[in-house]
Backbone:
């Protein structure tokens, strides 16, 4: 991927969080021309995790190159180049969905964005769906990529996928979860087997995907507090998360995406399709959780058409 011919701007937005105990900033990157006379409506991309960074979504600049859609990427608080708060490890009253919704709203104001589209991947799609359900002024389109409509459905189908792993891998996972040693190398190696089937089927893992996932190890504060040790061993407050009752409030045209081998299996995303009034669902037959890498050309074609046809 090359963005050498595109305008790239980086910066930080002050983000006031009264309970943080220190000043906070949100780091962002804009690829393309945001305010020029020929600028299109920008696409704001929300990364997953919670606890990775923006890097694995840089590939969305394909849309900027092909359609002149400005791309806004940022690292959510606690992650990447934004303010880290390791002292808040385990503080579920601090690490809330509302914190990240407020951060998104703050960034849009900082950048002077009046109209925009949102694309959220995994946790980012959960966040984007919740934000869209508030019917914010200026939001025109929503893309929900490989995101669960509820964590109850997510966990149920993670365990179905997990049961398809080799028995010895399943035994390692079960043993370490029972003993509370999920930080061990053996447990993480077993999780990596799961990831190779259902997170990203490209071998070796693309560098930008590995970089993003690496942030969980560098600073696990957000991931461990909100989620827990792994995709299928969810112990944090996200365990109770759901959009099923509120999805009908999403009033903008919505594109729903997932892959055949995705952690976000069809029954996990289906409530979005059933409840959102104006929604299109596209499944990528050769993809798991990273269809923007695994079927890059088709992914960009589908998303680009959805965004551009209604510009």
Residues:
């Amino acid at each position: 991927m090359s963005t050498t011919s595109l305008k790239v701007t980086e910066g930080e937005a002050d983000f006031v969080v009264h309970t943080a105990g220190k000043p906070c900033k949100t780091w962002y990157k804009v690829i393309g021309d945001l305010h020029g006379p020929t600028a299109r409506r920008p696409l704001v991309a929300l990364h997953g995790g919670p606890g990775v960074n923006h890097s694995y979504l840089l590939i969305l600049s394909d849309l900027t190159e092909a359609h002149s859609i400005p791309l806004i990427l940022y690292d959510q608080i606690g992650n990447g180049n934004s303010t880290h708060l390791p002292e808040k490890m385990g503080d579920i009253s601090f690490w809330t969905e509302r914190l990240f919704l407020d951060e998104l709203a703050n960034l849009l104001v900082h950048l002077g964005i009046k109209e925009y589209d949102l694309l959220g991947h995994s946790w980012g799609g959960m966040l984007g769906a919740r934000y869209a359900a508030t019917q914010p002024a200026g939001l025109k389109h929503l893309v929900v990529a490989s995101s669960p409509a509820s964590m109850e459905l997510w966990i149920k189908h993670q365990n179905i996928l997990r049961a398809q792993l080799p028995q010895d891998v399943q035994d390692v996972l079960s043993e370490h979860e029972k003993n509370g040693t999920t930080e061990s190398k053996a447990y993480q190696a077993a999780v990596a087997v799961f990831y190779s089937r259902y997170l990203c089927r490209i071998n070796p893992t693309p560098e930008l995907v590995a970089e993003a996932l690496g942030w969980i190890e560098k600073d696990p504060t957000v991931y461990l507090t909100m989620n827990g040790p792994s995709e299928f061993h969810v112990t944090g407050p996200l365990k109770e998360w759901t959009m099923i009752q509120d999805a009908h409030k999403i009033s903008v045209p919505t594109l729903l995406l997932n892959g055949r081998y995705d952690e976000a299996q069809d029954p996990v995303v289906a409530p979005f399709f059933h409840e959102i009034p104006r929604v299109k669902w596209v499944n990528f037959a050769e993809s798991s959780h990273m269809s923007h890498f695994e079927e890059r050309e088709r992914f960009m074609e589908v998303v680009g058409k959805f965004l551009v046809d209604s510009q």
About this structure: The radius of gyration is 18 Å. The beta strands are 8-15, 24-31, 43-46, 71-74, 116-121, 139-145, 254-259, 279-284. The chain is about 40% helix and 15% strand. The chain has a mean pLDDT of 95.
